[in-house]
Amino acid sequence: MSDSYENAEIEVEMERTEFMGREYQTWSVEQNVYKVPIDDEEEDRLEEEHAIISGFFSTTGEDRLYFAPLTRPKNILECGYGRGHWAIAIANQFPDSTVCGVDINWEALPEEPENLVLEWANLNKNITSKSKSGELQQGKFDYIHSRFIAFGLREKRWPSYVKELRSLVKRGGYVEFVEYDFLFQSDSGWCGYDPKQFAIGQLSDYVRDWQTRYHSSDARASTKLATLMGDAGYKNVVSGMYQVPIGSWGDSEHHRYWGERNKNNTKRLLESFALWPLSEFGWPDSEATVRSLITRAQQDLDNPHLRLYIRL
Ligand SMILES: C[S@@+](CC[C@H](N)C(=O)[O-])C[C@H]1O[C@@H](n2cnc3c(N)ncnc32)[C@H](O)[C@@H]1O
């Protein structure tokens, strides 16, 4: 961790708040930035999610950390490093590189390779001018990775965020965005029913509605990224929308294996991503109602007829 941890302001930002049995970053919930837990349970879930994404997209048997044709990147930036699973893996894969990770939850990681530098940054603001370590310089990075930060980024910030990352990347470098389209889909067409008849459809509708009405973030940012990158002047934009299975269905062993692991992880994700948002609707008997909806949505993931997936 860089030695800019002298700042009392940052110590306040590390305080935690308990809510419905989970721990949140106090600063983040007060500022309405990121209303997802930051406790051990979420750390564990993020580790498993990282394993699922790296394993599902692997074509070689080795974890796949990126899609860009990287050779020997010198400077790498990880936006919203979470518990550092991707940042540590890439730092170990390219030991001659320097990896800079930024996050609002700026806590030391259990393992920090020597070539990893961590810095506090709020991605909703311009990060280049705020860099305390001096790591975030224009035109510095060979590769920038931004994964699963849409729940903490304002919808209106996306265009300038995409543009700012373009200014941070070196000429000829790469920027990669990875986000879920937070709309659960059924490969069997919801068995002829309307998704709203299923708790999983209702839950994701409510969370998207909360994002628009209470949080100003964009659950469907992933569908707009290619356009945003084109508008920001990126060259050779390649975009892909992949279906990640939820449950053990599909033709290949690979698909079924990762689908099963992703189902278990998605059950945990539903609690992490829905607990606080659903509570803000102020429903009568709120906690019981919220918990019941989450439990019923989790049960839908076990329905083999739905053949669920999420797009990435
Ligand atoms: C779902 S986790 C993903 C972590 C990591 N990118 C991964 O894929 O494993 C989201 C992370 O983004 C961070 N985050 C959310 N909003 C942010 C913001 N506005 N600025 C900086 N970090 C943010 C959170 O603190 C959290 O660590």
From TrEMBL:
It holds the Pfam family Methyltransf_23. It comes from the Eukaryota. One of its GO terms (molecular function) is methyltransferase activity. InterPro entries: SAM-dependent_MTases_sf (IPR029063). This is S-adenosyl-L-methionine-dependent methyltransferase.
